[in-house]
Design a protein that fits this description.
By secondary structure, this protein is mainly alpha-helical. Helices cover 61% and strands 8% of the residues. It is built from seven helices and four strands, in the order αααββαααββα. It has helices spanning 7-19, 25-32, 36-48, 64-86, 91-101, 107-116, 139-155, and strands at residues 52-55, 59-62, 122-123, 126-127. The strands form two sheets. A two-stranded antiparallel sheet has the order 1-2. A hairpin with a 3-residue loop joins strand 1 and strand 2 (59-62). Helix 2 (25-32) packs across helix 3 (36-48), helix 4 (64-86) crosses helix 5 and helix 4 (64-86) packs across helix 6 (107-116). The longest helix has 23 residues, at 64-86. The relative contact order is 0.12.
């Protein structure tokens, strides 16, 4: 549902995704100014959840499940940021504000917002990808209703 990890673990996964390939635990520790032993413990927890594979003395790599999760986490950030930008915040302000609470927004809420926004392709901080959740068969009805409502408001 998108709530299974703490905000800090979410940030670690995004960092690993952005780096690509195998990432050394010391690099993660340096990036987040955390003791390497803390990273090792946290990485073990994330790996136990099935999102990472830990290769001793080499580092960590995202599993397929981890890649799917991070793709959603990035989408969540970009959808929420776009809403804030459309509400008047700068790109930087939106990113900062969203980072404070994004880990508490469910996948279903993001999918609903994505449908309501008409499946935007570009957010303030990058391309927005779409998956089956936001393209659910019921989404066309929601989207059509929102478009009709918008058209009605424009004619008034």
């Amino acid at each position: 549902n998108g709530l299974e990890l703490s905000p800090r673990k979410v940030e670690y996964l995004k960092f690993i995704f952005e780096r690509g390939g195998t990432v050394k635990t010391n690099d993660i520790a340096s990036r987040f100014s955390v003791d390497p032993s803390t990273i090792t413990k946290t990485i073990a927890e994330i790996a136990e959840a099935g999102y990472l594979s830990h290769i001793p003395y080499r580092g960590v790599v995202l599993t397929d499940a981890g890649t799917r999760l991070v793709t959603f986490l990035i989408k969540r950030h970009r959808i929420l940021s776009l809403i804030f930008v459309r509400s008047g915040l700068t790109d930087e302000q939106a990113c900062q504000e969203v980072s404070r609470f994004e880990s508490f927004v469910t996948r279903s809420a993001i999918d609903t917002m994505c449908r309501a926004m008409g499946h935007p392709q570009q957010g303030s901080c990058g391309k927005i990808t779409h998956d089956e959740g936001c393209r659910h068969p019921d989404s066309t009805t929601v989207y059509r209703n929102n478009r009709a409502q918008s058209a009605k408001q424009e004619t008034i």
